[in-house]
Amino acid sequence: MSEAHDFDQYDFLSADSSNELEIDPLAGSGTYTVVSSLPSQVQHAAEAVAGPPIPPASGPFATVSIRCTVNGEPVEVPEVWVADSLLFVLRDRLGRTAAKDGCGEGECGACLVLLDGEPVLGCLTPALVAEGSSVTTPEAYGDGDEVSGALAAHCGAGCGYCLPGIGLTTRALLARQPEPSEAAIRESLSGHLCRCLPPGHFIDAVNEAAQAVKRRG
Ligand code: FES
Ligand code: FES
């Protein structure tokens, strides 16, 4: 089921794979479609909450220390409130600001990070579930790999706000499926919103990154 909204946005699950800009992003108007099924990143966030044991804490203002690795570096974060999001801890406590704080409510995908290799939305994932886990933020890659190069080549005309999260989703996708179909690319990116560019730019970028990774071997 889908529902039409007036907004300057594009939907990765729509049938239109055109590279043509049909809506002027500066005009502040247009039409996009919201698909009511949950994107996989939200499902992963929900699984993360239900999965690993949460450190003991009691009372609404209880805090705990969490230990995890961030981009391979062991970190310990004291006084994490039970309601702190993983995004808040990464950005405001640890200074890893490449994951963006967009909508703050699971709609845009700008906050996406990898938790033990799985894409999760940092804004919806409690920081406590990172205890004992491996967290990967966009800083782990910088601008130096095939995905960064392909996104810069195909999506460089946009503002770039969505690109760190889309880059991580793309890397997780290519780790699972080295040669993804267009349908798999669209499903993978369906949790991301881009205000600047239509889906075709990102599909081309993912395909180019897949070919580049394959050539590297
Ligand atoms: S900031 Fe998390 S989905 Fe938008
Ligand atoms: S939001 Fe501007 S490039 Fe995607």
Automatic annotation (TrEMBL):
It holds the Pfam family Fer2_2. InterPro entries: 2Fe-2S-bd, 2Fe-2S-bd_dom_sf, 2Fe-2S_ferredoxin-like_sf, 2Fe-2S_ferredoxin-type, 2Fe2S_fd_BS, Beta-grasp_dom_sf, Diverse_Oxidoreductases. It comes from Actinospica acidithermotolerans. The lineage of its organism: Bacteria, Bacillati, Actinomycetota, Actinomycetes, Catenulisporales. The keyword DNA-binding does not apply. This is 2Fe-2S iron-sulfur cluster binding domain-containing protein. Gene3D superfamilies: 3.10.20.30, [2Fe-2S]-binding domain. Residues 64-141 form the 2Fe-2S ferredoxin-type domain. One of its GO terms (molecular function) is oxidoreductase activity. Keywords: 2Fe-2S, Iron, Iron-sulfur, Metal-binding, Oxidoreductase.
